[in-house]
Description:
Strand content: 15-25%
Shape: elongated
Bound molecules: iron/sulfur cluster, FE2/S2 (inorganic) cluster
Radius of gyration: 21 Å
Distance between the termini: 71 Å
Amino acid sequence: MAETVELLHVEVWRGAAEGKFQAFNVPRQEHQTVLDVVTHIQREQDATLAYRFACRVGMCGSCAMVVNGRPRWTCRTRVSEVVGRGGGLRLEPLRNFTVVKDLAVEMTDFFDKWRDAKGYFEPQRSSHDTAQRDFAVVPPDSAQRRAADAGIECIGCGVCYAACDVVGWNKDYLGPAALNRAWTLVNDMRDGGQDGRWKAVSGSAGCHVCHSHMNCTQFCPKAIAPTYSIAGLKRAMTARVFGRRN
Ligand code: SF4
Ligand code: SF4
Ligand code: FES
């Protein structure tokens, strides 16, 4: 007698801003991830399905989608974590991004905001400065180093940005990932771009727009807490206004 294959019912967003859900049935596999399901659909059932991934191991940040109503990285999300007995999957593109097609979104605005928040390292010292050739020594147990380390493993997946209601209301808001990145650099004693960074994060699209409602922190797959990074920016900014060092 032929073995019965258990099928998973999957609804997938098709289209861009306008579109509709399309239903598929996908064979269940042990330890199957949500990304495995999408890949099966694209390879075996509909080659026109658009989605994005690269590493499959939680490093590149490109596979995030809304899975049963919640933004997640799909390569590290097992179907068994999100689907109960008899349940199915509903897959949508990340919210707060422009949809390119199906499950693929345009990330340009998201990364432009990292740039706008001065979320890049600006060295204080030139490599041509022969008197300063040694590596900078950053004490691993200093408060600043620990604050920077807490946010440094961000993979740019956009889950926090998709989860943030304030980004939905205010398209100019720099958002949790860019502000978290700025906070890691505020705490980098080697960085020489602090004045420009403070100007960037204190503006009308900066850290004071955050309502501290924690969605970003709740959903970040890397267990980063952008809410606390943004709170750190707010505290340090107040300290700067009153003339103390951050
Ligand atoms: S804590 Fe701030 S950045 Fe995070 S989701 Fe809420 S409003 Fe957005
Ligand atoms: S802070 Fe977390 S959720 Fe946001 S982009 Fe970085 S890794 Fe993704
Ligand atoms: S495919 Fe790279 S993080 Fe998921």
